[in-house]
Specification:
The chain is an alpha/beta fold. The protein folds into three domains: about 80 residues, Arc Repressor Mutant, subunit A (Orthogonal Bundle), CATH 1.10.10; about 110 residues, D-Maltodextrin-Binding Protein, domain 2 (3-Layer(aba) Sandwich); about 90 residues, D-Maltodextrin-Binding Protein, domain 2 (3-Layer(aba) Sandwich). Helix content is about 40%, strand content about 20%. It has eleven helices and twelve strands. Helix 1 packs across helix 3. The N and C termini lie far apart (about 90 Å).
Length: about 325
């Protein structure tokens, strides 16, 4: 038996129209060809499907029973085709998103919400990673895509920047620099720093300000495993640290001060994935994130310029070591 999908679709249209001429017009085929296809179908099924008159056609009992099965089969077929297309286009499946503290900051809910709207058939799983894994799950292949803070040493990670925010020095309220409005790099090169316990050399270099220490002794570094652990050490006066400015909003603490560093490059937040594991969903997530960034200009402005409107006097920056 060779029941082609085309014949089955022809049959359902004739059953709906109850008229060969109208059905042929709807299907954009010649009436004679349509009649022949239906006769062939009846022969293949082995039953008369329509009562024919000069004015109309009516389903026979066999035709009624056949129609119910055909409609169900075609609906399942169409659903399967649509599902296959979604898979092929990366519009269905499971997306695992890794992130560190704050993820993409205030943009995060907008990005995830927009992605869910555009890809309603994708199941999203999110996981926060601590300071030891700055790749946010990319290095161990848990994450399909991650929200990270470059630079990282792993050449297998591709990162696309969303925005860049200032860096701040975090000190105890009792520290000698605590009353300063801003600091410069020269003010803090001799200050013992807490730095996340990460094996990534580029990460440690960036947050310990190593690029500014040419010819100077190595900094005294205290490794930490979480941002809250770091802040508690600082509040106790045991170290200072360099943080992204968002730390002020995500971990406010009465025992510390966050002071802008005026002469260092900012900290970027980026969407990243592995070079050897590029999924269509990861690329789509990056596209959506960039679109949201371009749309939410006021939010991005507040992230990149958190000290906008704050006037700093020249006396607030000293180039003498504390």
């Amino acid at each position: 038996m060779d029941l082609t999908v085309r014949k089955l679709r022809y049959f359902t249209v004739v059953a709906e129209e109850r008229h060969f001429t109208r059905a042929a017009a709807r299907l954009f085929v010649a009436q004679q060809s349509l009649s022949r296809q239906i006769r062939d179908l009846e022969e293949e099924v082995g039953a008369l499907l329509f009562y024919r008159t000069t004015r109309s056609v009516e389903l026979t009992p066999a035709g009624e029973a056949f129609l119910a099965g055909v409609q169900s089969a075609l609906a399942s077929l169409d659903a399967g085709i649509e599902e296959a297309r979604r898979h092929g286009a990366g519009a269905v499946g499971h997306l695992r998103i890794g992130f560190g503290l704050g993820a993409a900051l205030e943009l995060t809910p907008y990005i995830v919400e927009e992605f869910s709207k555009q890809f309603p058939h994708v199941e999203i799983e999110m996981r926060e990673f601590g300071l030891p894994d700055q790749s946010a799950g990319l290095s161990d292949h848990w994450a399909d895509v991650a929200i990270i803070r470059p630079p990282l040493a792993d050449p297998g990670i591709i990162a696309h920047t969303l925005f860049v925010e200032p860096r701040v020095l975090t000190v105890s309220v009792r520290h000698a620099l605590a009353q300063r409005q801003t600091v410069a790099v020269a003010d803090i090169l001799d200050v013992p720093l807490a730095v996340g316990r990460s094996a990534d050399e580029e990460y440690r270099r960036f947050w310990s300000l190593q690029d500014f220490r040419t010819g100077l002794t190595e900094p005294i570094l205290t490794p930490t495993t979480s941002n809250t652990e770091e802040i508690e050490l600082i509040a106790a006066g045991l170290a200072c640290t360099v943080n992204p400015a968002a730390i002020m909003r995500y971990i406010p603490h009465s025992g510390v001060r966050y002071i802008p560093i005026v002469d260092v490059p900012g900290s970027a937040v980026a969407i990243a994935w592995r070079r050897d594991r590029v999924s269509p969903l990861a690329l789509s997530f990056n596209r959506v994130a960039q679109e949201v960034r371009d749309r939410e200009t006021a939010t991005v402005e507040s992230i990149e310029n958190p000290f906008s409107g704050v006037e700093f006097t020249s006396a607030s920056v000293s180039h003498d070591h504390p």
